[in-house]
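notes to self, project folder thing:

trying the whole complex as one job this time. last attempt i did each chain seperately and stitching them together was a nightmare. two parts in total, labels are on each line so i dont mix them up again. if this works i'll redo the older ones the same way
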Amino acid sequence: MVCLAIDSRADIRPCPRAVYGVMADLLRRVAEQADLAAFRELYRTYGPRVKAYMMRQGADAATAEDLAQETLLTVWRRASLYVEDKGSAATWIFAIARNMRIDRLRREVPWQQLPENRNEQPSTETPPDEALSEKERRERVRAALAQLPPEQHEVVTLSYIDGLSHGEIAARLGLPLGTVKSRMRIAYQRIRTTLEDLK
Amino acid sequence: MTITHHLDDATLMSFAAGALPAALSAVAAAHADMCPRCRREIAAMERLGAAVMANLSPVAFERPEPLQPMPVSAGALDRPHHAARTGGGEIPRPIAGLVSGGLDAVAWRRLGPGVWDHRLPLTGAGKLRLLRVAPRRNVPEHGHGGTELTLVLRGSFHDEMGRYSRGDVAEIDETLAHQPVTDAGGDCICLIASEKPERFHGLIARLLQPFQDR
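result (full assembly):
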């Protein structure tokens, strides 16, 4: 990868709720026009968070930075495959980072498909959250997440961010496996309920 | 194909999070390939993942930002998934690359009367295999240590929870005991992942027990 310095540290952009719709626009500009300025916005917003994610998964800072850069460059390279109705920009970047982590840090094959590869057959039933705009959905998810009781938030974080299996979470917290699973389920149901309320 | 037994939400979440052990992930991916309902759940759970990641405190890059993003070396994300792109027919796409030739060309290993298995290569935690059981026989008892996922690819079996046909997935962990029995008709072929491979060896003995009519 060739990097040309323009400043020594990318400034870190906030990731406020209002930014989410903007992010999809940026990704579209990257996809349609190979818009470098748009890419840099994405890079500055998500790069340092993907780096934080990789570090939480056990990577040292240098490796985490490599993987975060590579994640964002994958976004650049594959932007044309991004389809908005298959997920938000943030979700797509999360999925790329997740698969990158499985491949590079775990040395395993990612079984998870990226949203772009998912073959969606037309569904007869309308998913409850389809009526929402991506931005509304995302805001609701964030709000619901913030309202989870600490013990549910904890298992969600250990799973998504620390990458621990249910068994590993149970061992770390000294809880029965069934308790870990039920906390995960309840956390998701709460968030799902919030989404459905908006229907 | 009407799927009535889905993956547990906690398992789907762990899969979406990229935290599910590899063998279980393979079965989850195979089930999701057959199940629009679980695909929708996974998509929602990935949105949750994006929100959780966005909440992380960012860690500033030390190195300069690339002025011009250059093509990176073709990485894993560009490699074709195990998955064949086109329909594997009976074989779910995520594992199509592991079962080339279809279920009738599998080199089965006989474990006992009416029971065969075939180990599938896997990188990562757990054990993945196909299990073929003749009609009206006990399927090896699962559980007692870690999670085990059983996805029906052909035929059907039943247990206390109901009947499992093609596309259905049975999820067993240490909190459950069950005794599945294959249905009359043809052989039942399942894709089975166990989180703790050592448990499987204990099951072989059970297979050799006389068939108990139920």
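what i see at first glance: Chain A touches chain B through 101 residues (CB under 8 Å).
need to look closer tmrw
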